[in-house]
Amino acid sequence: MLDNNQIRRKILQILYDYEIENPGGLTPSGIVKKHLQVEDKIIDFNLNYLENKGYLKLTRLHGSLPLSRITSGGIDIVEDNNQLDEKFPLIHQTIVHNSPGTVIDSQNVSINIVNSFNQIYEEINQQNPENRDLIIEKVNFIERELGKKDMDKSKVRKMYEWLQRNANWIMPSLSQVMVSAFLG
User: Fold this and answer.
1) For the whole model, what pTM was predicted?
2) Comparing 102 with 135, which gets the higher pLDDT?
């Protein structure tokens, strides 16, 4: 579902493209509707908003969506990404779900260290390497240090480097937990 800023950006781009192909022409509402695939009332609401801001002009026909024409102010915004982003900001959210218990997005960092480390211990048990006990010891040390306010970063780095050399298969999960903990 598109939010109003996304709809407004798309409307301006549609009208801009139409103006380039048909200078001075009015854009039929069907073209806008076809590209957006949202309800008529949502299109009408956003067209009215853009007209009130001076980015387009509407010609109203009784019983249908209006015909539209982008103004020079609307063209300026479409051609200047900084203005477009300022007037109609998009909310970017990237969510990474590589490790159960860890969620990172562009606005917040949320981590459940216990669940994430439980996943890592399960991974160690599944791999069942010869040096399993040493790996668990190193991971356990990192887990304890991440929970401290004043962690010993040099020791964490040493454990991390040892794990890179001796259990590199665990690094994606461990790295994600550590990055999330540091960002949080």
Assistant:
1) 0.51
2) 135
